[in-house]
Write a structure and sequence with these properties.
The protein is an all-alpha fold and 154 residues long. It is built from 5 helices and no strands. The protein has one domain. Helix 2 runs antiparallel to helix 3, helix 2 packs antiparallel against helix 5 and helix 4 packs antiparallel against helix 5. The longest helix is centred in the last third of the chain and has 27 residues.
């Protein structure tokens, strides 16, 4: 170790920092998480369209509880890969806030889409709104998450 000059040490530290940044950039939630959320969104849309108000309430609470249980395991963003598990200190504390923000945004999109579709006279606007959001979640969830992490430096 005594034979390393300062330039080599800087290069080694730079390479290690670059590898760490690449690893953290790949941290995320598994794609299955997003598809399960999309399926839950579709189920809530169908229940909201055809079910009684009490069932909509129970289903919404059940979806929230189910998401909370799953979130305790995945929401920290450390389990994006089977090959990699980072320490809690390596992953930004903003990751849970980003996912919650995504959920709030998806709820707003669902409501806006359902209102717009209903005003347009579409049959079953709640289901169609749920389909739109489920497609956004299933196909774009990981990319939305990664983009927001990049924008918020999380």
């Amino acid at each position: 170790m005594n034979d390393i000059d300062p330039a080599q040490a800087r290069d080694a530290l730079s390479a290690a920092d670059h590898a760490e940044q690449q690893t953290l950039a790949n941290v995320g939630l598994p794609r299955m998480y997003w598809w399960c959320m999309a399926a839950g969104w579709l189920a809530l849309g169908a229940i909201g369209q055809f079910g009684p108000a009490w069932l909509v309430t129970v289903a919404t609470v059940a979806f929230g509880v189910g998401h909370s249980v799953v979130a305790q395991r995945y929401l920290d963003g450390r389990r994006g890969s089977r090959r990699l598990q980072l320490s809690r200190t390596a992953v930004s504390r903003r990751v849970p806030a980003i996912v919650i923000g995504i959920l709030v945004g998806l709820v707003a999109i669902t409501i806006a889409a359902a209102v717009a579709l209903n005003a347009d006279g579409t049959d079953h606007p709640t289901i169609w709104a749920a389909v739109i959001v489920a497609m956004i979640v299933g196909f774009g969830g990981p990319e939305i998450f990664a983009t927001l992490r990049r924008w918020l430096h999380a």
